[in-house]
């Protein structure tokens, strides 16, 4: 089920808190509010501001990623990582009105048992994070966790393919934890986690996520565009790596972790 935002009705109480009806208050000043409701949770947001945040991420990706890609440009890894982190920041800002009200909270780990579909540049961001922030024993422990489960990892895909629904479900059924999920149920690479980990937003009861069925998920229509741009960003740097992989699989096959 997709969760969609609606507009505030003319006769509803104005979200600014004036106590007047919306049509007698902020509507007169040209302010449009959106309403986002699921069960007991409700978020009111300024539509113009929300649209500006979406436009900001899309314009950035168009100017800084898609256009150079179409012109056949190339980028060094440092520049590509800068653009990737810039994308993460703008993207999260655009999701902020909705993420506030979602059920996704620290400690809920269901989505960390799914396939983490990751582009090459995202994998390199995680590798660098691990290289600089993990000590030797943490790196050894990480590699041991990957080794324990690597036989379960799905094969890589061409950049324009997606894992089939059946394969995703079968993987989730095995309850293989992401190797970056700590014993305290937090993400060890939170600041560099891939786009897919930033995208998923659920509004239903977290119990549904563990069952893997019946979730109410927020799916904004510009999200696939952001994912596509991240693939272009990868190609600007790693021209010959035209695949996506499950995140930990990159770290043993291409962007390797060396425990020193
Ligand atoms: S990278 Fe972090 S947020 Fe993403 S699946 Fe792994 S533990 Fe979860
Ligand atoms: Zn008002």
- Principal-axis shape: globular
Tell me the number of strands.
8
Q: Order of helices and strands, N to C? A: EEEEHHEHHEHHHEHEH
Let me know the average pLDDT: 90
How many domains make up the coordinates?
A: 1
Largest sheet: 3 strands, antiparallel
Neighbour order of strands in the largest sheet:
2-3-4
- Termini separation comes to 46 Å
Strand-residue fraction? 5-15%
Q: What is Rg?
A: 20 Å
**Would you identify the regions where 5 or more consecutive residues have pLDDT less than 50?**
none
Question: How is this structure best described in words?
Answer:
- The chain is mainly alpha-helical and 260 residues long.
- The chain has one domain.
- The relative contact order is 0.18.
- It is globular and about 65 Å long.
- It has a three-stranded antiparallel β-sheet.
- It binds iron/sulfur cluster and zinc ion (ZN).
- The site of zinc ion has 5 residues, from loops.
């Amino acid at each position: 089920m997709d969760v969609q935002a609606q507009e505030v009705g003319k006769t509803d109480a104005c979200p600014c808190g004036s106590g007047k009806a919306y049509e007698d208050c902020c509507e007169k000043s040209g302010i449009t509010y959106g309403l986002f409701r699921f069960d007991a949770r409700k978020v009111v947001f300024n539509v113009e501001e929300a649209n500006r945040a979406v436009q900001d991420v899309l314009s950035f990706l168009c100017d800084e990623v898609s256009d150079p890609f179409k012109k056949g440009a190339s980028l060094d890894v440092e520049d590509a990582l800068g653009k990737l982190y810039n994308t993460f920041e703008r993207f999260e800002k655009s999701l902020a009105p909705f993420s506030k009200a979602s059920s996704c909270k620290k400690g809920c780990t269901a989505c960390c048992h799914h396939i983490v579909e990751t582009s090459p540049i995202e994998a390199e961001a995680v590798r660098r994070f691990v290289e600089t922030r993990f000590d030797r024993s943490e790196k050894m422990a990480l590699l041991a966790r990957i080794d324990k489960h690597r036989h379960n990892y799905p094969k890589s895909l061409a950049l324009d393919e997606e894992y089939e629904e059946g394969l995703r479900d079968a993987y989730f059924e095995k309850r293989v934890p992401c190797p970056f999920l700590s014993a305290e149920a937090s993400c060890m690479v939170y600041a560099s986690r891939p786009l897919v980990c930033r995208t998923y937003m659920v509004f239903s009861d977290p119990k549904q996520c563990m069952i893997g069925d019946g979730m109410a998920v927020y799916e904004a229509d510009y999200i696939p565009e952001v994912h596509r741009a991240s693939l272009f960003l990868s190609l600007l740097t790693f021209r010959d790596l035209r695949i996506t992989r499950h995140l930990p699989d990159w770290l043993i096959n291409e962007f390797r972790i060396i425990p020193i």
